Amino acid sequence: MPVLSKEILLERSDVLIFEKADIYTLDILSDALKQSRHILLIDASGLPSGVIDELIKLREEAQTVFKIMQFERSRPELTSCLPLMNYPSLIEIKLGQKVAEGPGKNKVITGTLFRIIDILLLLNSSNIKKIQALQQPERLASGNLISSRVEFDNGTVANLLYTNIAEKDSLLIDIYQLNKHIRIDLLKNKFQSKERSQLNNEIHSKTNTFKTTNNQVFYSELDNLYQSIINNNASGKELYDISRILELRSRIIEKSGF
Asked: Which of 220, 240, 228, 225 has its CA nearest to residue 79?
């Protein structure tokens, strides 16, 4: 397949799909918006926070669809719990990875934190009141552990924990509220809820296992993009979501001492 120049690519395309946004792709991404092209961005974790405002401005001027694929937000394990949540008092997200130390560890940390925070802000979109993080001693600030506490204006508290020296990969989410506990195991596609009846004090349990794959989520996002375009539903909401994620990630990393 011949390599197309940026000019020809933009001339021949109404929709562009970017695998990632970084310093190498921002130029064509900006030009695509200036020429009113629709965009699907698969991985926004490497997007420099300093360019978000400019992308928001360009998208609003173009009035095109700018979608960002956030796999977790479309997972039924997460979306099925949203109607069951009612002012949770505590949210805990724990992510463990088996990642060898190496030159790419910082990229793993930023990408992983992006993923955790994306889940958190889906579960609780309230304004953030306070952020605390475990300060890493200089000799240990190698990416082995990140622990942070986030307090929201609506009273919810969230504990975020990441380690890259786990025995096995895991991603567990625990949600606690009055008389109810919800646990989501995203790597096992499992959703569990326990609720205590206020009438007889009995505990009722429910477990669902889903068979959703990343490919299914990807095709679903493509269909959402198509429907937004044909229905002329120009939107860039995801850019505002990404802006919040990047800001919180930056503050956690700074407070952690990395």
From this structure: 220
Q: Which domain range does residue 161 map to?
A: 76-211
In a shared domain, residues 124 and 221: no
Number of folded domains in the chain? Answer: 2
Amino acid at 178: L
Cα 101 to Cα 110: distance, rounded to the nearest angstrom: 14
Q: What six digits make up the tokens of 72? A: 């977790």
Dihedral through CA 14, CA 34, CA 122, CA 244, nearest 10? 160
Q: Are 174 and 194 in contact (CB under 8 A)?
A: no
Residue 186, phi then psi, degrees to nearest 5 = -70, -30
Quick one: 91 and 151 in the same domain?
yes
47 falls within a domain: yes
What is the pLDDT, as a whole number, of residue 74? 74
Q: So what's the pLDDT on residue 71?
A: 64
CA–CA dist 244, 134 (Å, integer): 21
Q: Looking at the structure, do residues 128 and 148 belong to the same domain, yes or no?
A: yes
Q: Are residues 101 and 185 in the same domain?
A: yes
Would you say residue 221 has pLDDT above 70?
yes
* Residue range 13-22: mean pLDDT, rounded: 87
CB 52 within 8 A of CB 26: no
| pLDDT for 101 | 55
Q: How far apart are CA 29 and CA 37, in angstroms?
A: 9
